[in-house]
Amino acid sequence: MGFTDPAVIEEAHADLEADAARIASLDYSGLSVRELLELQSRRERLRCAAEAVDHRILAALAAQTTPKEIGAKNLAEVLRIRLHISAEEARRRVRDMENLGPRTGLTGEVLPPLWEDAARAQAAGAINAEHIGVIGHFMAHLPAWVDPVTATQCEQSLVAGARHQTPEELRTAAKNLLYQLDQDGPEPDDAERDRKRGIRMGNQRSDGTSEISGTLDPEARAYWEAIYEKLAAPGMCNPADEVPCLSGTPTAEQIAGDTRTLSQR
Q1: Do 62 and 70 contact (CB within 8 A), yes or no?
Q2: What's the pTM?
Q3: I need a labelling partner for 83 at 20 to 30 A (CA). Which of 57, 152, 201, 242 fits?
Q4: Four-residue CA torsion sign, 254, 256, 261, 263
């Protein structure tokens, strides 16, 4: 795709805005059930294809400036502030652009998207952002030993399914494909475990609490289980006790009086 005169882009989007306003003013009650469903399908294809245009716009922005130059920490924050969208949605759009948008090589050559089949399907309006999310989750969980050719074949298989499946159905297919791929594979190595490990803390709620989730590597789990077995036993370290048991063995009274759940301990 070559350079497009900015005036042409402005004219095309002015026409799009005018058409959108005209479409919004129409009364659809005169259409039959079949016509309404067909129209809904057409609009869904347009909605999906519009995301592919957004990828190109965002990729062009990223190529011309840095987030710091326009007052933000990262590209997702640029979108969040400018478009008044959530941080999660902004990150999703940046992630999709990185996987589905156009790329430029070190010498300026145009490179295809990382997920070429998925990008083509979305540009054609055949798959939506939820399908892309399922494919992205699958790709993120591919074992490190999977070669590029196999990864591409998996992408192609999932894209083919996404063309006629709901995201829920595709998620099941992706889970099965990952199992088939990995059931006889080599044992994960340290690099694979390091890639998966990490702790994530959610936003603080109005009551001050925060949700935490993550993945422990074998060494971290061993440490955690040792601590858990000792300090999270019934009656141990109970702030409700006048004198909490911090070492040794709690008394029978302390154990019986500990009403905390295992998670709370």
Answers
A1: no
A2: 0.69
A3: 201
A4: positive
